[in-house]
Amino acid sequence: MEIIIKLPDMRPRLKAALFDFDGTLSTLRYGWENIMEPLMLEMISGSQPADENLIGEVREYIDKSTGIQTIYQMQWLAEAVKRYGRNKGLPDDPWWYKAEYNRRLMEMVEKRKAEILEGHKSPKEYLIKGSKAFLEALLNKGIEIYVASGTDHPDVTAEAEVLGLSGYFKEIAGAPLGKADCSKEAVLRKLVDVNKLEGPELMVIGDGRVEIALGREVGAITLGVASDEEKRSGINETKRKRLVNAGSHAIVGDFEELDAILEWLKLS
Q: With left for phi above 0 and alpha for psi between -120 and 50, is residue 48 left, alpha or beta?
């Protein structure tokens, strides 16, 4: 565990935790970038080979946009297809691109879910290490746990169920179908405005800059999860840099240093 910004010693007791899902707890969608990048290059370039500048632009955008709702990424793609003008005849509708991306991504996700449901793999093989113990510790300390994800709501709820995590969460909020609304911001605003939580009474945990930046906006404690999703433990340096820049108070690669995390949160 790496402390980036020291928390004030005098602060109110933590009451709620808001988790991102993919890459923070679940690795069912590990490798999504390897599906989005070819899709974007194919749609923008058409029959022409993608040049280095285009490849660089797409990779930079994917890195920068990690954690946002997929439809916003597809809005960027639709605009890029139009801007480059290499692939005539494709629709302007970002929802069309989202449907095609989702179709390709879900082929991979459904195979992984089937491995669990058919007993070939256990749920823990698709969880960041220490996830369940951390969730259990938070519940035992009376912390309410929420999930907000850029993944479509029906999919994130189904994936939480397959991984045996549903029972830990007071609420799961995925991206609403057919709407370009930010589920992460909506849940945060609800916790602050409706539940009347203030600043460090709330913690935000995630592997994307979006949730960390939103957490800092409302004064929450932020824990950046620079997860190596392939190993499910240890630090991914690219993620770490992104999360430090977003303003994380602390960085972990997984939740195996449970005692250190709880001590940092004054929950031990």
A: beta
Query: What pLDDT digit, counting tens, does each position of 120-148 carry?
Result: 999 999 999 999 999 999 999 999 999 98
The segment(s) of the chain belonging to CATH 3.40.50.1000 are 2-27+127-264
Structure-block tokens of residue 252: 């972990």
Q: Order across the sheet with 2-3: list the strands.
A: 2-3, 250-252, 221-225, 202-206, 16-19, 144-152, 171-175
Count other Cβ atoms within 10 Å, centred on residue 85: 9
* CATH architecture for segment(s) 2-27+127-264: 3-Layer(aba) Sandwich (3.40)
* DSSP-derived 3-state class of residue 172: strand
Q: Residue 210: its pLDDT value, please?
A: 87
Dist CA 144 CA 125 (whole Å): 25
Residue of 102, 134, 130 lying closest to 203 (CA atoms): 134
